[in-house]
Amino acid sequence: MGILRRRTTSRRAAGKDPVAAFWQWWADDGEDLLTTATRAGDFDAYVDVVTRRVKAIARGLEWETRAGTDAEHALCVSSGGDPSLRPIAERWYRASPPRTRRWEFIPARSAKPDMLDSTITYRGRTFDLSRTKVHVATTPAGYGFMVSVHNPGFTGQWDDEYGLCVLMLEWLLGEDDVERWVRRIDCIAYDVVDSIPASELPDRVAALARTLPEPGWLLMQGTLGGGETILVRVLRPLRWIDHPRFDLHTALRASFEADAQGLPTPESSEALDGLEDALVRAMGARGMLVAVESSKGIRTFHFYSDSEDQNGRDVLDSAAREHPTVSARHVLDPGWKKVQDFA
Question: Which residue of 122, 206, 285, 291 lies most exposed, with the fewest beta carbons within 10 A?
């Protein structure tokens, strides 16, 4: 596995895109090197070389090779569960060449459920993973699970064992599906009532996925601390992992003529709806609207887009320039923390 460095503005400005440099190296030498070394099982021949190449992209990324699904080998560059790195892994993947007979490329670890049939040594301790059990509880909102993981080898040394719990869930579900479906992970030293073999967890996830409605809008109403009414319209499910490139949050704030509750009058509502429709059309596939909140004479549109796509940002900045009552504020937010209160 390698440790990679996030690209800096100065390097991009100088035309030294490390993602492009990586794929140029791959075309020149890398593919042949990794193919020969992987087939021979000679890991020392390429670990340092690949690590140096990916180190320029972002510190904290992890990489590995594994057997491919539609090719002989797969090269994975993973965020290691860090939301701030997932968009970078996605950009690396989207810049990759087409799959060949020898190599395919993935931006997150895929599931390897057969690993739960093995005995492994982790941080100097041995664990029989086949004896792992999990307790699964659905979250109150119903869009994911809280998972407690038990293995007879656990002793309560959570700093060491938590990492193994995450690793086992990634082997069962794949890295992205852990983020997509697991809201909380606990390590437990003692088995509990209603636990199930860990190998049954993917079926539980698949069953929940089948019961969920298609993504859609949910309307909520509440009261702020000062007693003012707030209306929120939010996209459900609200999951950043389904759109890993969209790491830039834009809060587009539009003031409006309000009624006694601080909500839009009918005339204001019509104008705001028109603004929303125009923005969504202009953004197109470059970004998405995920939440809208209205209170105290202000409507805030919460957009996400790719921070490396200036055109998406320009759509929202243009709206702010053209409408004196509209302002736009951008901030990097790869894990969509700005809208988690609405999740």
Answer: 285
CA nearest 50: which of 80, 20, 29? 29
CA distance 174 to 110: 4
Whether the Cβ atoms of residue 154 and residue 189 lie closer than 8 Å to each other: yes
Cβ neighbors of 243 (< 8 A, separation 6 or more) are 288, 304
Region of residue 329 (phi > 0: left; psi between -120 and 50: alpha; otherwise: beta)? beta
Omega prior to 215 cis, within 30 of 0:
no
**Per-residue pLDDT tens for 196-225?**
999 999 999 999 999 998 899 999 999 998
- Over 80: is that where the pLDDT of 12 sits? no
Compute the distance between CA of residue 231 and CA of residue 179 in angstroms, rounded to an integer.
28
Q: What is the 3-state secondary structure (H, E, C) of the chain?
A: CCCCCCCCHHHHHCCCCHHHHHHHHHHHHHHHHHHHHHHHCCHHHCHHHHHHHHHCCCCCCEEEEEECCCCCEEEEEECCCCCCCHHHHHHHHHCCCCCCCCEEEECCCCCCHHHHHCEEEECCEEEEHHHCEEEEEECCCCCCEEEEEECCCCCCCHHHHHHHHHHHHHHHHCHHHHHHHEEEEEEECCCCCCCEEHHHHHHHHHHHHHHCCCCEEEEEEEECCCCCEEEEEEEECCCHHHCCCEEEEEEEEEECCECCCCCECHHHHHHHHHHHHHHHHHHHHHEEEEEEEEECCEEEEEEEEECCCHHHHHHHHHHHHHCCCEEEEEEECCCCHHHHHHC
CA distance 165 to 149: 6
pLDDT digits (tens, 9 = 90+) for 134-160: 999 999 888 999 999 999 999 987 777
- The two three-digit tokens of residue 263, written as one number: 């909500």
pTM for the whole structure: 0.86
